[in-house]
Amino acid sequence: MWLYSWRLDTLRKRALKMSDSELQLEKQRAELLKRIGSVGDLRRGSITATSGKCGKPTCHCAKPGSSGHGPNFRLTRKVQGKTVTETFASPAALQKAQREVEEFHRFQNLCDQVVEVSEQLCAVRPIDSSLSPRKKNRGSASTGSRAGSKRAVPAQLV
Ligand SMILES: [Zn+2]
Asked: Rounded to the nearest whole angstrom, what is the distance from the C-alpha of residue 78 to the centroid of ligand 1?
């Protein structure tokens, strides 16, 4: 498997005249996209804990030595500019929401990394003159017109 992928890389590199840094970055991006493909249930919002004293003089929290209320957990998120608050019926519901919010952060992090790697790729990509409108001749495909022994490997292959 290692040999096979090494051979593929070499072939691609020759066919597309790709530099080592491009190949490396493409691998990184493919790996990140694979990880994005495996994300689970995710949701936006942030979970915060509220605790303390409510201020009512008759409440149990006003008694000396009381640690106050909570902590009470809630999830807040913005929906069309408004903050929506959600509370949890049970510790299990809280844990579920925590996992979902964490998954969203993981997803966001992966997306950021894809953009970063992609920007690096853009920087090392050669400017392909064959894509300029001037050289676009109708009807004749320029691939393989030279020696004919090398097969062009589509860029979407890996
Ligand atoms: Zn109170």
From this structure: 28
